[in-house]
């Protein structure tokens, strides 16, 4: 029961970072929020004993940091780095696979790899929408209740951000 409460605490932090991430205007600020979100997510899943999700979220912290460093130098992430991310995520998923549901975090991780490599903020929001939709299904199944709320709020935040930054401009 103690681990469950600690997990929900990290879930609350995740809600904050997740909703804020999609309201950021610049890619760098989005990346910083995603870094914090993935750390909170990894700890949430760790305390829920959902190892596949925890592993892909910890690796997402690493991915986001590397991509942030490339972006801060105005360099595009090389394709071999993206391929490395995808391979590692598949290996993490395979090494911790115990049921069919464990495919969802790996799928989300691969979508996330593509997301953080995008240059346009509008593309980041579109991919994050599909990512958050899949996480919502997974979070409900593994009883990550705070992150289920986070997914719903983030989906709403993405829709608002798409309107504010992507469609309202046109």
Main sheet summary: none
C-alpha Rg (nearest Å): 15 Å
**Oligomeric assembly:** single chain
Mean pLDDT: 90
Measured distance between first and last alpha carbons: 50 Å
Which regions contain 5 or more consecutive residues with pLDDT less than 50?
none
Number of domains: 1
Supply the helix-strand structural class: mainly alpha
**Count of β-strands:** 0
Order of helices and strands: HHHHHHH
Provide the β-strand percentage band.
under 5%
Description of the molecule:
α3 (51-72) runs parallel beside α5 (103-116) and α4 runs antiparallel to α5. The mean pLDDT is 90. 83% of the residues lie in helices and 0% in strands. It has seven helices and no strands. The radius of gyration is 15 Å and the shape is globular. The protein has one domain.
Features:
170 residues, mainly alpha, 0% strand
Quick recap of the structure?
With 170 residues, this protein is mainly α. It is built from seven helices and no strands. The model has no long low-confidence stretch (mean pLDDT 90).
Give the SSE map.
Layout: H1 2-23, H2 27-47, H3 51-72, H4 79-95, H5 103-116, H6 121-142, H7 145-167
Helix pairs in contact: 1-2, 1-7, 2-3, 3-4, 3-5, 4-5, 5-6, 6-7
